[in-house]
Amino acid sequence: MILKRLFLALVILLVDIAVFFIPLVACFATYILLWRPIWFKDWVDQLYKDCIPKGPEDQAESSA
Predict the structure, then answer these.
(1) Structural domain count of the chain
(2) CA atoms of 46 and 48, how far apart (whole Å)
(3) Could you say which of 3, 22, 38, 54 would form a disulfide bridge with 58 (CB–CB 3.0 to 4.6 Å)?
(4) What is the pLDDT tens value at each position of the chain, 64 positions in all?
């Protein structure tokens, strides 16, 4: 019984170390930089769509 509890405690500890030791943000940033997924660009465009000033051609279309 004690060996089973000790094994379970070690498994929980190893999973905890593995999950929190791996730099998830760095792995995610590397994925974004290497593969350049289209969903990330769409998300950034959606995020900044109100912040980007319109060019002269866009302003001419909106005033017409």
Answers:
(1) 1
(2) 6
(3) 54
(4) 889 998 999 999 898 888 888 788 888 999 999 999 999 999 999 999 888 776 666 666 556 5
